[in-house]
Write a structure and sequence with these properties.
CATH topology: Protein Transport Mog1p, Chain A
Strand content: 25-35%
Helix content: 25-40%
Number of domains: 1
CATH class: Alpha Beta
Shape: globular
CATH architecture: 3-Layer(aba) Sandwich
Order of helices and strands: HEHEEHEEHEEEEHEEHH
Number of strands: 11
Oligomer: single chain
Length: about 230
């Protein structure tokens, strides 16, 4: 059977494209390099005026949500902290070693409504960490009489990315170098009708926590912040 030059060139081009796609598929996990992360030991149970309150259990996901979180994340940490004034902050951190498309972070604006909450506010803000500034999301979730202001951020590798576009661009940046980024979701919330008061307390809590961590632990949570202007 005689094969035309056109068909031959088309076939070669298809093979080349397939080979390029395989070659560009990320294969090296950042999580496999360097020290292993252990949230339980990295996050102190007491820092500044805050200490872990073991009498209160943070809000737990339903079985369906729990199964999804276990698929997405390698480690999760949920604690409630109380300060000397009796004010409480709920902390939740979830870490995943593979932030590819199949393992994208599960955001609070999705998981809270799945548990019966309404999201009344969803905005982006800047949080001054004490070592620079990072973008964060501010939410207000309600369920009955419960009003829960929420602050959270997500990371891809060493970059904080709370918008879907920034998250995807950061993911692609790693993919082009053959790397699969790790990532985490850091969320704090409190039961408070005044969201301005709640966000200020949450920011103070997060800054105090970051200040109590080692430099490597701090980098795990906030990557490389932009200098504060």
């Amino acid at each position: 059977m005689k094969i035309s030059l056109k068909h031959l060139l088309t076939g070669l081009a298809m093979l080349a494209a397939a080979g390029l796609a395989i070659a560009m598929t990320p294969t090296h996990k950042i999580a496999d390099q360097g020290p292993k992360l252990n949230l339980e030991t990295m996050i102190p149970k007491q820092f500044g005026e805050w200490k872990m309150d073991e009498t209160i259990v943070p809000l737990l996901a339903d079985p369906k949500q729990t199964a999804l979180l276990n698929k997405i994340y390698n480690q999760t940490l949920s604690r409630t902290y109380v300060n000397t004034a009796g004010e409480r902050i709920m902390l939740s951190i979830a870490y995943g070693g593979d932030q590819s498309d199949a393992m994208a972070v599960h955001k609070p604006e999705v998981c809270y409504p799945a548990q019966g909450f309404q999201i009344l506010k969803n905005s982006t803000d800047a949080f001054a960490t004490g070592n620079g500034s990072i973008p964060v999301k501010r939410l207000i979730a309600t369920q009955g009489q419960r009003i829960e202001p929420i602050t959270y951020w997500t990371t891809v590798g060493d970059t904080v990315a709370v918008s879907s576009l920034k998250w995807k661009l950061s993911q692609l940046k790693y993919g082009l170098t053959g790397k699969i980024p790790d990532g985490l979701l850091f969320r704090i919330s409190s039961i408070q009708a005044d969201d301005a008061v709640a966000y200020k307390m949450q920011d103070d809590f997060a800054r105090t926590l970051l200040g109590a961590l080692t430099p490597s632990g701090r980098k795990r949570l906030i990557g490389q912040p932009s200098p504060t202007t």
